[in-house]
Amino acid sequence: NNITQRPIPTVPPQPKALCRVRCAVTKRVAFIMVLLVARVA
Question: DSSP of 1-41, one letter per residue?
Answer without folding.
Answer: --SS-PPPPPPPP-HHHHHHHHHHHHHHHHHHHHHHHHHH-
